[in-house]
Each structure stands twice: as structure tokens, then as C-alpha cells.
């Protein structure tokens, strides 16, 4: 499949010492607030 053939390119940082580049805790807080806001606007 495409994913199997291109796994190394798609997941370039996987298994390496390179950090993800985002603050996961901060992103989780933003995501939670974002979806709460979206739900309240329905």
C-alpha cells in the first residue's frame, strides 16, 4: 500500500531523537478548548 511503501517519508521523525516540534500539553489544552467552543456554537 502507499502507506507501507512510503512509511519512512510519512513518519520522518519516528524512532529518532528529533523531538516532535510541538508542546503536546499545550496542544491538548487548546484542542479541548477549541472543541468546547465549537460545541457551544451549535
TrEMBL record:
Residues 1-40 form the LHH domain. Residues 10-21 have a biased composition (Low complexity). Residues 1-21 are annotated as: Disordered. This is LHH domain-containing protein.
